[in-house]
Amino acid sequence: MAIIHLRLAEKDILLGEKLYQLYVLFTELNDMGNYQQVKELSRDKFLTPDECARLCSGPKKNSLLGIRDYAILKVFLNCGLRRVELIRLKVKDFCRQGENYWFIVHSKGGEVDEQDIMNPRTIDAVQKYLSKSGHGDQPDEPLFQPIPGRAKTPSKELCRTSIQRLVKKYTRSAGINKDVHVHTLRHTFGTELQSLQGDIKVTQKAMRHKNLNSTMIYLHTNRDRVKKGLAQLNL
């Protein structure tokens, strides 16, 4: 009897595993069915790694303005923040625990999320800016602020247009022949992340997209990888 029960138990386990595999397959197919047809992100909507390097070489790091602008560009490119999310950052939103750094991001609709900062140059850039700016010990102050004496208003918060002008300024000085906006840098982050790790769900999480359809535009990077692979074939 014990042998019969054991064999029945084994069959139950196998049946359970098969049912779970079917469930996973059904879930994936259902997700695919929910994907809307999306357009590829055209090449003028994101920057190449070379263009990113040229863009970030523009700010002069011997002035507070240059140190701040360099930090802003690095945060956009390596953290994928939206313009309003960068504006809303407070000093206390730049967090550290041991070797780990992250931003507390205040997103659209009042949602709060965390964005890991994995790029050492970005961490270093923000730390240097806070050290030079003099407000690094004021947790409730805006993280990125207008330069004293240069701002037209007494506000300590950067305005949307000043950030766009900043991006345009360094795009021109880098000789980048594209219509670059702040969101171009976010597209660049999504494109490069998808290209490097290939998992669309990971990219969705990093972009803080509720709907996977919003992330699907970055699958154009997979097509580029396929082309490179095909080019290497020599059968």
Polypeptide structure, described:
This protein is mainly alpha-helical. The chain has a domain at 50-180: hpI Integrase, Chain A (Orthogonal Bundle), CATH 1.10.443.10. 54% of the residues lie in helices and 7% in strands. The protein has helices at residues 2-34, 49-56, 64-79, 83-88, 120-133, 160-173, 182-197, 200-207, 220-232, and strands spanning 94-97, 100-106, 112-116. Strands 1-2-3 form a 3-stranded antiparallel sheet. Helix 3 (64-79) packs antiparallel against helix 5, helix 7 runs antiparallel to helix 8 (200-207) and helix 7 packs across helix 9 (220-232).
Overall shape: it is globular
The main sheet orders its strands as 1-2-3
- Category by helix and strand content: mainly alpha
Averaging pLDDT over every residue, what do you get?
85
> Terminal Cα separation, in Å?
59 Å
Helix-strand string: HHHHEEEHHHHH
- Binned, the helix content reads 40-55%
Identify the CATH class of the domain at 50-180.
Mainly Alpha
CATH architecture label of the domain at 50-180? Orthogonal Bundle
Sheet of most strands = 3 strands, antiparallel
How many alpha or pi helices?
A: 9
CATH homology-level superfamily of the domain at 50-180:
Intergrase catalytic core
Query: Ranges with pLDDT <50 over ≥5 residues?
Result: 2-9
Strand % is: 5-15%
**Radius of gyration based on Cα positions:** 23 Å
CATH-defined topology of the domain at 50-180 = hpI Integrase, Chain A
According to DSSP, the number of beta strands is 3
